[in-house]
Write a structure and sequence with these properties.
The chain is mainly beta. 7% of the residues lie in helices and 38% in strands. The strands form seven sheets. Strands 1-26-25-24 form a four-stranded antiparallel sheet, with no helix packed on it.
């Protein structure tokens, strides 16, 4: 991408289906014989300080070898290797990573793995649902924070994504709460200093699905036989750390709140509920979100098939990138070298049995130029 212009984009990686570097032949044989790769969805794509790439693969289907992976090139092909180790990805061990969807790599080069805890949608075993901080540079565990049943229901929870604020010592989590009807959407705040967790906006309008909303991507309804219903999903933290943004997946609205209100755990829930700002209709529903160091809020466009940008100063939403190949734009990250990196994974087709597995671009990681000095919110001065 020479002579790059803002908005230029290209494909960084692509797969017809994900492939692993297995530690033993028996695992590899079983993976292919049982066709477990058909349930392996590329989810949270991240890059670290050294330029290594990582990918989470949630264990929503049987036989997912590792839920967090480092991408290694083998004969020109992007292959997955369990990260930090195969032991740390062992199913059934509540101390290991069970099923990671959203996660973050912070400015200290630490990974914050948000472990959903659920295997194939079954209720969590105690201790499996957690937030794990891992030092990538030192290759060691910093801390593992159990998220108990009274903070996120072991039955209903669907821990979706996480934002980190080291400057003030807080972590913010979106819980889609998809496994019960009505949904149990909400947000979770973690205080790094006191080690306390608090659930807020439980089943609040801003964290629940919009009633009677059935969306389509490229003409295909999601799901085919019934509307998908997902609560609080995308989440983003402003560059100045003063505003938290989020949105349910099955809604087009964006919401926000002043972080000072939710950082104080003695703030009454009624006051928090009243402080939520409805920022209106984005013109599309959204899965993942992000924020840069300039104050912009980025959101994936599921219906819109691309990436949009919200300007908090003007309240304006605008499409940034659109492409008919961008089917189910999932999550995003910044490489802190001027690029927004995001992935498309055709989630509804993969789990709906509609994928053409011979197609080489079922799962795609895209790289878009956003400006030489544009970085993640984590690097805002």
């Amino acid at each position: 991408m020479d002579n790059k212009q803002v908005g230029d984009y290209e494909i960084l990686f692509h797969w017809s289906h994900l492939e692993w570097i297995f530690p033993e032949e028996a695992m590899k044989k079983d993976f292919y014989q049982q066709e477990y790769w058909k349930g392996a969805m590329a989810a949270g794509f991240k890059t670290d300080r050294s330029g290594n790439y990582y990918l989470s693969v949630p264990r929503w289907a049987p036989g997912i070898p590792a839920t967090v992976n480092k991408i290694e090139m083998v004969e020109g092909k992007p292959m997955l290797a369990a990260y930090p180790s195969w032991e740390m990805n062992r199913i059934g061990d509540p101390n290991a990573l069970q099923s990671v969807l959203g996660w973050e790599i912070d400015e200290l080069n630490r990974a914050w793995f948000l472990d959903q805890g659920h295997i194939e949608g079954k209720p969590c075993i105690d201790g499996a649902q957690k937030l794990v901080c891992w030092d990538i540079t030192e290759n060691k565990l910093v801390e593992s924070i159990k998220i108990p049943d009274d903070i996120a229901s072991y039955e209903a929870s669907f821990l979706n994504d996480v934002m980190v604020d080291n400057a003030n010592g807080f972590v913010y989590i979106a819980d889609s709460g998809i496994f019960t009807d009505p949904l149990q959407g909400g947000l979770i705040v973690y205080n790094m200093r006191t080690k306390e967790l608090r659930r807020i906006l439980h089943q609040h309008e801003s964290t629940q699905d919009a009633p009677n909303y059935w969306f389509k991507i490229a003409g295909k309804p999601v799901w085919k036989d019934r509307p998908m219903r997902t609560g609080a999903d995308g989440i983003a933290l402003s560059a100045d750390r003063k505003t938290l943004y989020w949105c349910p997946l099955t809604s087009r609205n964006l919401y926000a709140i002043n972080t000072a209100i939710i950082q104080n755990f003695s703030t009454p829930h009624t006051k928090i509920d009243a402080a939520v700002m409805n920022l209106g209709d984005k013109g599309t529903n959204t899965d993942g979100m992000g924020a840069d160091n300039k104050g912009n809020i980025y959101y994936t466009m599921l219906e819109g098939q691309g990436i949009g940008i919200y300007n908090p100063a003007t309240g304006a939403y605008r499409p940034f990138i659109t492409d008919e190949r961008m089917i189910w734009v999932d999550g995003m990250t910044f490489d802190n070298k001027g690029h927004l990196i995001f992935n498309t994974n055709r989630l509804h087709e993969l789990f709906g049995g509609d994928l053409d597995w011979s197609y080489e671009y079922n799962l795609v990681v895209w790289k878009a130029f956003v400006g030489e000095d544009v970085k993640s919110y984590l690097y805002a001065v």
